[in-house]
Amino acid sequence: MADYRAMWEDLGMDLDTHDQLCAVLPDAFGDTYLTQGNRPDNMAFYDFVVSEIHGVRPAELIELQKAGGKVFGTFCVFVPDEVVIACGGAVTGLCGGSQFWVPEGEKVLPSGICPLIKASLGAHFGKTCPYFSVADIYVGETTCDGKKKAYEILGADKETYVMDVPQMKREKDIVAWADEIAAFARKVEEVTGNELTPENLAAAIRTVNEKRRALARVFEARKANPAPISGKDTLLMTQIAFFDDPVRCAEMANKLADELEERVARGEGAAPAGTKRILVTGTPLAIPNWKLHHIIETSSAVVVCEEMCTGTRYFENLVDEGADTLEGQFRALSERYMKNNCACFTPNPGRIADVVRMAKEYQVDGVIDANLKFCTLYDVEKPALADALAEEGIPCLGLETDYADNDAEQLRTRIGAFVEMLGA
Ligand code: BJ8
User: What is the DSSP letter of 318?
Assistant: First the structure.
């Protein structure tokens, strides 16, 4: 990695503690990623981004700020990037995916809260993540109790705007979410100093739709058997999409998709034909949480789909591009975002239907339903999902894990037995 110490110092980061994080990441990435065989050539871009993860993109965001732009840090796929982009701002994902940040988070949160929330607050308060430091404002959302309350703690330290996500999917909820997007738009105008117009919002909607189409092409290629790319590599592409410039993200994903389509035409796989195909569903896998995929893919299986926010929920469903008034565009945004089947909704039959549909489309041999410890929302949905899959004759393994490595061997044993059972 190039030398970014001066930049990190200017951002007010804790350099000594941050050095400890920088010291372990290259080995973790090398052991998990660079040991894979037959990777697509276009993964070189994503490998480079990881090698510079705390340098190159934060430096770009600082350049944007020098030119008068603002950076919005987000924690959930419900926040409509389109509104920020339309006003000349940038969006960066902030969900913490490393155990490194958890102890710092536990200083301000109870320990019985999900590791994603603890790691996110730990990254903020420990001053060891440049994305938290560079953000001008955080944007939270009322999806789960843990996050809702954590935003109060974050908000006492840095401006945090919270969007009120409806908990049901009735017509009045879609109207309410459109109103909430309109209120967010006023906040974005205030922060950026730029006016939101039907023209700049239409352009931003097209930009983000292009990114969704590009990511969808990569996933489409994974439906082929043998799978042309590993789950680990696809997960990395998706994780980086949360940080990257949306135009570049689409360009790089399209290049990767071109290569994968050629592989599919040649019948070339990242794993040999006959490798057991797994769909993973559940809570998001924020970077650098690669534990589950790594265990699955070193247990004679390949992950071919993620039904999660670091997966299909991030790109499925486009925003209708036909509206030409802000009111119509807010409605179109609301309709698209409200199609997300997060477990925060009640009832939430759409997620179960999605998993069953995708299990067939991606020709999977089995489903792994994995949630982060203390995530009640996804935990409660487990039995209903397992029943629906059983009715279709699709094997399902339910797991609960966190960011620490101390359950890795136990997970390996359970996943290994599951994969072996798929072959029996
Ligand atoms: S739309 S999945 S990104 S809320 S794992 S913090 S739910 S206790 S991350 Fe999520 Fe938005 Fe939903 Fe997606 Fe809470 Fe559960 Fe933790 Fe979670």
Answer: P
pLDDT of residue 1: 75
Distance 404 CA to ligand 1 centre (A): 19
Asked if residue 114 has its Cβ within 6 Å of ligand 1, the reply is yes
Between CA 222 and CA 219 the distance in angstroms is 5
Q: Which residues contact 287 (CB under 8 A, 6 or more apart)?
A: 53, 97, 236, 239, 240, 242
Q: Which helix (H) or strand (E) holds 150?
A: helix 145-155
Task: Supply the pLDDT for residue 100.
Answer: 96
pLDDT for the residue numbered 10: 97
Ligand 1 near 50 CB (within 6 A):
no
Q: What is the domain count for the chain?
A: 1
Q: How far is 105 from 305, CA to CA, in rounded Å? A: 31
pLDDT at residue 2, as a whole number: 79
In degrees to the nearest 10, what's the CA dihedral of 216, 217, 221, 222? -20
Residues of the chain with pLDDT under 50: none
Q: What is the pTM of this model?
A: 0.97
Range of the domain at 295: 5-268+275-422
Q: Decide: 76 in ligand 1 pocket, CB within 6 A.
A: yes
Using a 6 Å cutoff on CB, does residue 312 contact ligand 1?
no
The C-alpha torsion from 140 through 145 and 164 to 61, rounded to 10°, is: 10
